[in-house]
User: What shape does this take?
Amino acid sequence: SPGAAPPRAPARALAALREATDACRQCPIGAGATQSVVGEGPAHAPLMLVGEQPGDQEDRSGQPFVGPAGRLLDLALQEAGIDRRAVFVTNAVKHFKYELRGKRRIHKSPGQREIAVCVQWLEQEIALVRPHAFVALGATAARALLGRPTPVLRNRGQWLAREDGRSVLITVHPSALLRLRGADHDAGVRELVRDLARARERA
Ligand code: URA
Assistant: This one.
């Protein structure tokens, strides 16, 4: 109707979300980060990929999965026949948590409380994008999406249900594969590709 407000462009809604996450100090991580990193992808992507938190390069660039883990994820997506531009890629935690060693910023895993506080932003992204299904990359994402601790190795490759009824496929985080060498690394990548291909069927 003529008087109704136009639907807000998701890009604007995401920009607003980003301003809110930038300003968020509900946990201590934000104070040490360069900026927050929110998700990227089409407004109504059928599939949402959720990682842990931005790394060093993501913290500097403001974009999710652009560092070494992102390059491995890109490769695995390609092998699984998924166009990264067609999925929404984000993280459970929006700021980079690290420990300084000299000049180097060493990744630190987010704690339970930090994950619990930050899930409000992830839920806002979910409300904006309304994906059919999710891929949880690692334990932090699984916990954030399902609201309970969910062991990755026991559940990987499986679809679990969220409280809202939507499905979450559990798989490993690409960073875990970066720590493996040789045949273990290759097998890990093949399993990640297999899991992503399974997610593609559902979404
Ligand atoms: N690891 C993540 O979980 N997310 C990123 O964006 C980068 C590395």
Q: What stands out?
A: The first strand starts at residue 47 and ends at 51. The pocket of uracil is lined by residues 51-55, 58, 64-65, 67, 69-70, 91, 175 (CB under 6 Å).
